[in-house]
Amino acid sequence: MASTPSPSGAVSPLGATPSSAVSGPGWRNWTGNQRATATAVLRPSGVDELVDAVREAASAGHRIKAVGSGHSFTDIARTEDRRMELAALTGPVRVDPDRRLVTVPAGLELRQLNALLAGHGLAMPNLGDIDAQTVAGAISTGTHGTGAGYGCLSTFVTALRLVTGTGEVRHCSAETDPELFAAARVGLGALGIITEVTLRCVDAFVLRADERPAPLAQVLADLPDLVAGNDHFEFYWFPYTDRVQVKTNNRVPADDQPLNRFRGWLDDEFLANTVFAGACRLGRAVPALVPPISAFSARALTARTYTGRSDRVFCTPRRVRFTEMEYGLPRAALPDALDALRRLVDGLPFKVQFPVEVRFTAPDDIWLSHGYQRESAYLAIHQYAGAPYEPYFRAFERIAMEWGGRPHWGKLHYRHADSLRSVYPRFDDFVAVRDRLDPVRVFANAYTERVLGA
């Protein structure tokens, strides 16, 4: 493997600069619904220093939580004890262009990873629509994009290194320690602190994006063909309407239809962020205006088609703050679940300001992946930051549970170990690995105790 992060072939260390990193004990996540004050902030500059910190915490009865960019809506990264930031944990980036593998520090942000790969003529096979997460944070929570042929981002991991609760440094892959590998690729931060990740990449590619409004009934009628006939397909339903916005991304040989710079700014910055933020504030102040605003938005959207570098098409700026819940369901359950969700929205005592996002993924073999051994459809519901959401989210969760729904680990949910065990066939196997790797629960917090058991 050629150890080089740059086309020149030089080996250089590369660390992370998480967007939510703060200098003091106070911490908050991206949307501001999770806050904590640590007793100490740890910033190891090397694996040996990290190991020493873990061993000292274990012997003294302290807990440690590693944090990334704060893009989880749950309390998965909250700690009132010791917070560990990995920005200073640098390491050599190793790129093997022939085998299409890259090894990076776990605290690297996805946007940095994408730029690095582009410099080598490589790319991630699939991405979600936000690129601010760290590599470790994204894989640990099962972050995913959309596409019937693709699992979550964790399926692109070929090896990783972590430090366990006893201070042991463990390397795992499908060939070396496969049981740990099956557990740690979506590990919730409960098995150890990931320090290095090796990812399977592909040759850089161009996507043709097609985005257009459509009737919901027509999209549901054509759903099998839309999912199977596109590399990446998703749609957004506008509450209080029968309209959706359909988005398809397909690989093409040439970037021959780039998005006009003004149109890109108008759609992705001005309309999707500035104007939408204003509409959300107005809707929060005058709830009766939300349905007509939603109907106007659904009708006002115009079609656009353009080409671009894959990561620039996949990822878009998100500046309007919100809270989110997302559930992975068996794909066949989507029409019934969406119908129940529409009835729920109509009956709420407050208004829903955000569209509902629907995405699709392939099955995988990762124990706590929401896509474990099934084709999935994902329903993601949102609410503008500061607007009421809990009755909405709890009611939707009950709908999702009727179809064996699995919650996204980084999105708000109210599940606990007993109810999660029934939808994850390898749940107890994961807990057994956790018992071995972190016997005194150095990496536990209220979230892991709720979802995995104390």
Secondary structure: helix percent:
25-40%
- Low-confidence stretches are 1-22
What is the spatial order of strands in the main beta sheet?
16-13-15-14-18-19-17-20
Largest sheet: 8 strands, antiparallel
Structural class: alpha+beta
Number of helices: 14
Number of strands: 20
End-to-end span in angstroms? 42 Å
What is the global morphology?
A: globular
| Radius of gyration, whole Å | 21 Å
Average of pLDDT: 92
Give the strand content: 15-25%
Molecular structure report:
The chain is α+β, with helices and mostly antiparallel strands and 454 residues long. Helix content is 31%, strand content 24%. It contains 14 helices and 20 strands. The chain has helices at 47-60, 110-119, 135-140, 178-184, 216-221, 223-228, 261-285, 290-300, 310-314, 334-347, 390-402, 417-421, 427-437, 446-452, and strands at residues 26-28, 35-37, 40-42, 64-67, 82-85, 94-96, 101-105, 122-123, 157-163, 169-173, 193-200, 202-203, 206-215, 232-237, 243-252, 304-309, 322-330, 356-361, 376-384, 406-407. Strand 9 and strand 10 (169-173) form a beta hairpin. Helix 10 (334-347) runs antiparallel to helix 11 (390-402). It is globular and about 60 Å long. Residues 1-22 have low confidence and may be disordered.
